[in-house]
Design goal:
The protein is mostly helical. It is 73% helix and 0% strand.
Length: 343
């Protein structure tokens, strides 16, 4: 693994992430190690600071989240798969609704070209949508800013909704301290994260840094080798770098981009969230899950970010993650095929 050069741009991103995290801790805001770095980097970017992400190191930190999700897979969970079938079948409907509404909004209201509108509207993984959009001749910067705004806004709003409307406590630690866990199990989780990531990357699996470690750790969990989530310290570091990674997306933003792309992203968030909530309310009587679990599962936020909220909130992590995996898989599977009809 090649570590990123610790240059001034990365140092600036880490510094402002730290300031944001400290400010959120002092203010008593939920998820300070995740939302704080996101807000700190966003504020720095809007002020004109030049930053960059942590490269492979930041990606490696995301593997801890994949390990945490995989550790939640138990034999009892596998027995629940039939009851998830109906709920999971609604994901393609949600993708079609959000993507269709978003495309019309970006094309007819905002004035983006067809490919930029399409890949900005698809609620898939941020990296994949930017890559596909670039291959099809879309505006990479606009697609990037729209998806960064989607992830940031939805993710920033959910913790406050969870605490103020559902009365959940998001201050609970996402894991046990490393000192309280067997050292060999912690070491095994680190190795599983790195190995799972590299295998999934070699196989060109989308979201390799999360899905690879998740699948490998799930096998270890089912075999009874891993019996706990990653230590608290690992989860806090993962939160920090996930937040930093979203915030630095706004680096170099211009006033014109702020007025067009970011405002368009905000409008898209409203439309996408409204479509999502409408589907949840319409299908609510048929879904055997708590409303918050369904909300976290269907809202088109980032896969990593929504999974982290589910872990900290103590909700049904497996239920939430399963729906986001289906969403990402469905978008990537059909995305490029449909784009051919829009050219």
């Amino acid at each position: 693994m090649n570590l990123p050069k610790f240059n001034r741009k990365l140092a600036t991103a880490i510094a402002f992430s730290g300031i944001g995290a400290a400010a959120f801790v002092a203010a008593g805001f939920p998820l300070p190690m995740l939302l704080g770095p996101m807000a700190g980097c966003l504020a720095a970017a809007l002020a004109g600071a030049r930053m960059e992400g942590a490269g492979h190191l930041g990606t490696f930190m995301r593997t801890f989240l994949g390990v945490a999700i995989g550790a939640s897979v138990t034999p009892e969970l596998l027995g629940r798969i039939p009851e998830l079938a109906l709920s999971l079948s609604l994901v393609p409907i949600l993708v079609a609704a959000v993507g269709g509404i978003g495309y019309l909004f970006f094309r007819r209201v905002v004035g983006f070209d067809a490919m930029t509108s399409y890949y900005a509207a698809l609620p898939g993984g941020m990296q994949e949508m930017i890559l596909f959009g670039a291959e099809e001749g879309g505006n990479i910067r606009a697609i990037s800013l729209v998806h960064a705004t989607r992830v940031l806004v939805i993710f920033a709003c959910v913790p406050f909704v969870a605490t103020h409307y559902f009365g959940l406590n998001l201050d609970q630690p996402p894991g046990e301290p490393a000192a309280s866990l067997p050292w060999h199990e912690t070491a095994l989780m680190i190795v599983s994260g790195l190995t799972g990531w590299r295998i999934a990357h070699a196989m060109r699996i989308p979201g390799a840094s999360i899905i690879g470690p998740m699948l490998l750790t799930a096998l270890l969990s089912l075999a009874g080798v891993v019996n706990s989530r990653p230590p608290l310290e690992m989860m806090l570091v993962a939160q920090f770098f996930i937040g930093l990674g979203v915030g630095v997306r706004y680096t170099g933003i211009t006033l014109g981009e702020l007025r067009l792309d970011v405002i368009a992203g905000l409008g898209y968030c409203v439309l996408a969230s409204a479509a999502c909530i409408a589907l949840i309310l319409a299908a609510g009587n048929f879904l055997a899950a708590d409303f918050l679990d369904v909300l976290l599962a269907f809202l088109p936020g980032g896969q990593a970010e929504m999974a982290m909220i589910a872990i900290v909130a103590g909700t049904d992590v497996a239920y939430v993650v399963a729906h986001h995996l289906v969403r990402i898989f469905f978008v990537i599977t059909i995305g490029k095929w449909i784009s051919g009809y829009l050219k």
